[in-house]
Amino acid sequence: MTTTILGVKAPTKKCTDGNCPFHGSLNVKKETFKGTVIKRDSNHTATIEWFRPRLVPKYERYEIRRSRMRVHNPACVDAQVGQPVFVVRTRPLSKTKNAVILSVLVSESSSKTKAAPLKDAAEAAA
Ligand SMILES: [Zn+2]
């Protein structure tokens, strides 16, 4: 079992996935991505997306460009929809996948700050 990949520690959960970079035999490359999970499917696959500004010289303004990517989602990572994730390039895993999720990132606007006011509101209503 691999304990650390590109500075990311292995998740505490274990899995039997051969395509898991921590518990399986999958090697990762050094190209990395950050994105948000927008879709999950049953076969340990997720779709991530991220946005980036691109300058339009004629109008001297920025337009927002979107990138999407299909990635492997190992059982031990199990990223959920809406979570920001750290992804690395691998060998092709299927027709559309050549990357794997290494870890779920803790977002700046973490769920704690969002959940707290909701809880307070629920308690006030109760
Ligand atoms: Zn694993």
Please give the domain count: 1
Mean of all residue-level pLDDT scores: 85
Strand adjacency order, main sheet: 5-4-3-6-7
Helix content: 10-25%
Reported for the largest beta sheet, the result is:
5 strands, antiparallel
Number of helices: 1
Bound molecules: zinc ion
**In CATH's first tier, which class applies?**
Mainly Beta
What report would you give on this structure?
The chain is built from one helix and seven strands. A hairpin with an 8-residue loop joins strand 6 and strand 7. The strands form two sheets. The chain has a five-stranded antiparallel beta sheet with strand order 5-4-3-6-7, with no helix packed on it. Strands 1-2 form a two-stranded antiparallel sheet. The chain has 126 residues and is mainly beta. The protein is 12% helix and 44% strand. The radius of gyration is 18 Å and the shape is globular. The chain has a single domain, classed as OB fold (Dihydrolipoamide Acetyltransferase, E2P), CATH 2.40.50. Bound molecules: zinc ion (ZN). The site of zinc ion (ZN) has 7 residues, from loops.
